[in-house]
Structures are given as C-alpha cells and as structure tokens.
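Q: Second attempt. The first request was missing the SMILES, so the protein and zinc ion are both included now.
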Amino acid sequence: MGDTISAESRKPVELDQTSIGRLSRMDALQGQAMQFETERRHGVERQRIEAALERIEDGNFGYYIVCDEDIAIKRLENDPSVPNCIDCQRHT
Ligand SMILES: [Zn+2]
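A: Got both inputs this time. The predicted holo structure:
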C-alpha cells in the first residue's frame, strides 16, 4: 500500500500548457515594464549626473546648495550625484 503512494508521488508533474502560456506572457510584460523603468531611470540619472557635474564646475559639489549642509561622504561614495544632504532627503 505504501508502495502505491510513493509510486504515485514519483509520477512526473504534468505541465499545464495554459498556465505556462500565461506565465510567459506575464514574464514578457514584466520584462517590458522593467525595460521602460530602466530607460526612465537612466533619463533621471543622466539629469542628476549632469547637475552634479555642474555643481563641480561651480565649486558647489559636496554640499547641498539649498541648506548649505555638507553631503555626507558616505552618500557621495554611494552615489556621487546625490544633490541633497541626508536631513533634507529625510524631509522630502
Ligand atoms: Zn539639508
């Protein structure tokens, strides 16, 4: 009797073609959404980097021009284009 049960559980799982089709469509949509998100982020990132380069040129790099606070080195190490200090970041 125990043998029958273990033989049953050893049977290969039957694949449901419909759910696979739905899954791959979802994968495709997710991939597309991620692609859009990546492109959007790149646009934002480029703006941030350009702004950071301008701050370097102006000699304003390393502190937040709005509140005059230093931007923590750790923050700049993590992302040199961060525009604001940690306090202002927390308040936005
Ligand atoms: Zn600040």
